[in-house]
């Protein structure tokens, strides 16, 4: 019987798995991320031929996927997973014990067979984490055009703040090549320190150092600049075709376009822009037109949470009107103790001491990415004393009557299908810290929502406002590159 070779990249060794020909195997055009058994698993490539390269890191113990079971559509659009496929023949890496589990998860690309790795030495997941970027590049060279495409995206990060540093982490995990960083207020040695240590997301497990005037992360050399003006930075010399504008200052098309003077090709603004086209992955990225768009916005973290949920609800039941409240983690713009804030007085109160009402344009921005909802949504925010993870409360009136059970079913179907990796679904008794490090944009909390009647509902969805959003910036970069090549 002929077979397809699957490569598991774990702890510096290659573990081969023979999978019978014809076994269901999806072809993924972009990196997909999953949470399974409290372990973050990143799939870098899943092509049936010539090979499948998979990595896993983080979580409590490490589970590596041997393959995936494709979600099959049954009659009337129902979903069913194949049940009787033969198990793959697994050959373990030296020094590791293996066990095979056939537990399924309710996802469109669901893990079917897994290897639980145990070792008396360092946990395999940590070893894989440390060497992940190098192996991602190897996967890109050997697994086919899909992976090679991702590694060809040359990115520059403008500002090494919270989002800038996490965008770098996301790009490294997804195999995007970051070639330059600019921050006029942070020198090279301090960059090493700030990237290595993170009070919220933990220490970076890979190698980070300064060498020959560059930031080197897992062997990736990144040029460092300290220019005040975007027009002064030689992006072209550094090979940076795509710039992530993460200062929060150069938001308009006119201001962000100064990056192009140094040789950059495209600019992604990691914040809402007053006039740049706005994109939310999973919602309207298909509207990106490389012929006419050089400056684009990735919207806000809250819009990235709200828009996928609003799209599912509107597509299935219609939204007549709605109000959104985001209970939002504090951010770097707030004060640790009471201080001056002339523009918004309440914003100057101590972030750790107060629940602070604040304005947000996130709900109105949904109308820019879903034109049918323009003028139908608005909202506000409460800044609360947590460092990361926020939650959206969408209260809306439906055009088509629906029970709460029907709403849950619609959201789950989208989370398991076309919005997998963007929209999540959980019925667990979760709290905010459970979503630190979650790469999805929006995780619907089925147990937290309520309905007054079949036309008036309150829906709840969580999001890591830092890392989830940073992953969408990286995904938008990959999407733009794919549309242009």
From TrEMBL:
Domain Glyceraldehyde 3-phosphate dehydrogenase NAD(P) binding: 153-301
Subcellular location: Cytoplasm
Keyword field contains Iron: no
Location of the region described as Disordered in the Swiss-Prot/TrEMBL record: 75-104
Any Gene Ontology CC annotation: cytosol
Catalytic activity: D-glyceraldehyde 3-phosphate + phosphate + NAD(+) = (2R)-3-phospho-glyceroyl phosphate + NADH + H(+)
Record-linked InterPro entries: GlycerAld/Erythrose_P_DH, GlycerAld_3-P_DH_AS, GlycerAld_3-P_DH_cat, GlycerAld_3-P_DH_NAD(P)-bd, Glyceraldehyde-3-P_DH_1, NAD(P)-bd_dom_sf
Entry EC no(s): 1.2.1.12
MF annotations from Gene Ontology: glyceraldehyde-3-phosphate dehydrogenase (NAD+) (phosphorylating) activity; NAD binding; NADP binding
SMART domains registered for this protein in UniProt: Gp_dh_N
Keyword NAD appears in the UniProt entry: yes
Pathway of action: Carbohydrate degradation; glycolysis; pyruvate from D-glyceraldehyde 3-phosphate: step 1/5
Keywords assigned: Cytoplasm, Glycolysis, NAD, Oxidoreductase
Family: Belongs to the glyceraldehyde-3-phosphate dehydrogenase family.
Purpose of the protein: Has both glyceraldehyde-3-phosphate dehydrogenase and nitrosylase activities, thereby playing a role in glycolysis and nuclear functions, respectively. Glyceraldehyde-3-phosphate dehydrogenase is a key enzyme in glycolysis that catalyzes the first step of the pathway by converting D-glyceraldehyde 3-phosphate (G3P) into 3-phospho-D-glyceroyl phosphate. Participates in nuclear events including transcription, RNA transport, DNA replication and apoptosis.
Binding partners and assembly: Homotetramer.
Name of the protein: Glyceraldehyde-3-phosphate dehydrogenase
